[in-house]
Fold each of these.
Amino acid sequence: MKICRFTVNNQIKTGVIDNEKVFSYENNQKLSDSYNLHEIKLLPPVEPSKIVCVGRNYAEHAAELGNAVPTEPLLFLKAPSALITDGEDILLPEQSNRVEHEGELALVIGRDCKNLADSVNALEYVFGYTILNDVTARDLQRADVQFTRAKSFDTFCPVASFIETDLDTTDIKLTTKVNGEIKQTGRTSQMVFNVDFLIRYISRQMSLKAGDVIATGTPSGVSQLKNGDVCEVEIEGIGKLSNPVKRAN
Ligand code: MG
């Protein structure tokens, strides 16, 4: 199922996208009332308490930025206020001269958890999967010791407008295009640390709450975004995330 959040008649609702329609979804049940996609406004599909990101989780991407592959996951946070969804503008802040895309598979936590043991199947704590663009001010990331500023400008976290609840992420393809030209390609099987491992690992560093988002890292091929570009991230089995790029005023 493709679960979304949307506004209709000034109300925020949860829905299921099915065949150009959105059906209301309440208490884990798809209801019969529906709306046409063009009648409603889709919102980012989650309101996370935090967005946990994994850096350098594809060896070729670590190498292209001159970094070694870490021996344990490299974690950082992105501000939830950076969230936008499909079709909304990525705004280039005046503080940076080099903003880059990072197309990533993201997962949404379905049940609160902490300190998950090795014996636990962490995938049981996943609500579903979505597409995330970990937009980064590369010059500020290099200049600052912490990643916080470089990763958290408003609009620096586009996510697809829905969460796919049924997906095997063992070996699926990710592609990022700018103005239709392929920049990044990779397969999730190339991740240094897989989804199951990452959830257990992160749950031992901080409690994970239902709705929290984990971005699992980006393949090689990151490149600069400029005013007027359109950046599109596609993940096999989920769909596409497309965002125009504009200068912030
Ligand atoms: Mg990233």
Amino acid sequence: MRIDTNKLAAYYADAPADVSLADLDLARMPSHVSIIMDGNGRWAEARGLDRSRGHVAGVDALREAVTTSVRLGLDAFSVYAFSTENWRRPQREVDLLMHLFATTLVKELPLFHQENVRLRFLGDLTALPERTRKVFQQGLDETADHTGMTFALAVNYGARAEIVRAARMIAEEVAAGRLAPADVDEELVGDRLYTAGLPDPDLLIRTSGELRLSNYLLWQLAYTEFYVTDTLWPDFDRWDYLRAVVAFQRRSRRFGGVSGA
Ligand code: IPE
Ligand code: IPE
Ligand code: MG
């Protein structure tokens, strides 16, 4: 994707002391950045607020991260919003999250139009409340012909469930005679995942300091660079995002080979 350097410079004015746009190498930009947005609950608890307030604040951080991703010229930006394990949370919190997904999506459609962002979802949406599903479908329909960045929202997503689903689909195709076992290769498996057609993430960011994947994109992260920050998700802003991308650009990605070869 092309970067609008004027817009980028305006977006990244007023730099803090430790990082600035000059640190960014525009020739080494990631194509796909993914974020495990974690720490909403701790953000709220630290302020003596209900966890739900953390999720509401997290929406603002997500809006900024989408805009940042567009300004950085990414092809794809994905976020982990709700895992298959998050159903274990108190019903009240689950209900609030489902409600937030629906209301936020409607509210942000103008941003997706303005920035030419195409929406997609990763995960099993059939288990979501009807209103949430309807709004998600509306988002898909309204952005289907957008040609800019893809924004992928992982909701009721679990990597193991995704791989099981792909295996089952492939088994059915083999059983029906449409595929031979020898046709099954990495590309074919990748095409049966929710992320089909998206490049693998170059950079995975996790906020709030946890050093785990929590069942996120197990297949797709095979060669992704990881960046973990202690910043809690509602506090994560364009500067934290820039720090992560700058750190990513300083890594040597060898993909099993040797440096510089
Ligand atoms: C991430 O924040 C948001 C979701 C998982 C939906 P958490 O709600 O996990 O926040 P912590 O980890 O409890 O602080
Ligand atoms: C991972 O965060 C899921 C999302 C960010 C949606 P969690 O807060 O659910 O992960 P654990 O429970 O700490 O592993
Ligand atoms: Mg958490």
